[in-house]
Amino acid sequence: MNRTTRCMSLLTWLLGVWGCLVFALPAAAQLNQGLPKELEGVGVTEHPGVQIPLELEFTNSDGRPVTLAEFFDGTRPVILTMNYSNCPQLCSIQLNALVDAMRKMPWNLGEQYRVLTVTIDPLETPERAQLTRQKYLKDYGRAGGGSGWSFVVGRDENIKKLAETVGFGYVYLPDTEEYVHAAVLMICMPDGRVSRYVYKVDYDPQTLRLSLVEAAEGEVGSPMDQILLYCFHYDAGRGRYGLAAFNLMRLGGLATLVVLGSALTVWWVRDKRRAKDSEPEEEA
Fold first, then answer.
1. pLDDT at 200
2. 164-176 burial string, b = 16+ CB within 10 Å, else e?
3. Residue 75 has pLDDT above 70, yes or no
4. Which option is the CATH number for 43-216: 3.40.30.10, 1.10.10.10, 3.90.1150.30, 2.60.40.60?
């Protein structure tokens, strides 16, 4: 390679580096800017194990004063959602997806688990919350579900206290009179502690059921649910439960031991029976 060719190659390389810098730096600067200023604080900061302030006061959709403690009976897990009735789109998409997943579960709302929806709009009235509640209970379509799904409204300070505790960040936009927030389910233990956060708006029924089994620490669900929970672990990246290879290997090893032990027991019993049957012939 002569000197001219080497110079041209070097010049081409330098131009390539310069082009990368020219286009990459503005993009990096844009990424560093993050969310628009008016959306800062929107999102979810997970606080697994945090205790919900059960003393907070709200008003249910019947207009009766309640505290959050009334929705945690120490027996059934609770799905906590934070929405508002006048939400133009996201809340309805999320709650419709939740209803769809609940319809596909064998469990009945109000028996094995409960749902609590807390409005993030302090101006929402109990009457408006009642209309929203009736809509989704009608979509759910199973008798007796009304006792299991509660909608409550409350003062701004109590709503913010609950949201801050569970890490639910939202922002009010005065120009559009809308709230910007994330779509997330908080799966709570029967005593009011947060067990897991479930994201997206296409909830997998098995993930929802196993999350409730996990939150209730085995107090709800069938023995098969306990086996599934042992064989599966929650994949936060995929937002659902996946096979737990190590536990599955242990379960397979245990099954092998059971089968081998059963075979040896059958062989031992048959051998003893044959030995007993042959004793008279030896005496004769």
1. 79
2. eebbbbbeeeeee
3. yes
4. 3.40.30.10
